[in-house]
């Protein structure tokens, strides 16, 4: 099953409101998380179902399925 992969070269959490990744709020399985605001988000492969909602909503196009 494909998993969401965040591209650190494109991801800019400082551009998201309060440093909180916008996509973190849109993931239905809560597979995308941040340790703290302004930190780069990461994905939990056990929670990611490859639905691609994160790809559709990321304004920086920093997520892909692999």
Task: Give descriptors for this structure.
single chain; two-stranded antiparallel sheet; 15% strand; 66 residues; alpha+beta
Mean pLDDT: 94
Spell the H/E element sequence.
EHEEHE
Uncertain residue segments: none
| Beta content | 15-25%
Give the number of DSSP strands: 4
Description of the molecule:
This protein is α+β, with helices and mostly antiparallel strands and 66 residues long. The protein is 15% helix and 15% strand. The chain has helices at residues 22-26, 53-57, and strands spanning 4-6, 32-33, 42-43, 63-65. It has a two-stranded antiparallel sheet with strand order 1-4. A hairpin with an 8-residue loop joins β2 (32-33) and β3 (42-43). The longest helix has 5 residues, at 22-26. It starts with a strand and ends with a strand.
What would a concise description of this structure say?
The chain is of the alpha+beta class. The protein is built from 2 helices and 4 strands.
Could you give the topology of this structure?
Layout: E1 4-6, H1 22-26, E2 32-33, E3 42-43, H2 53-57, E4 63-65
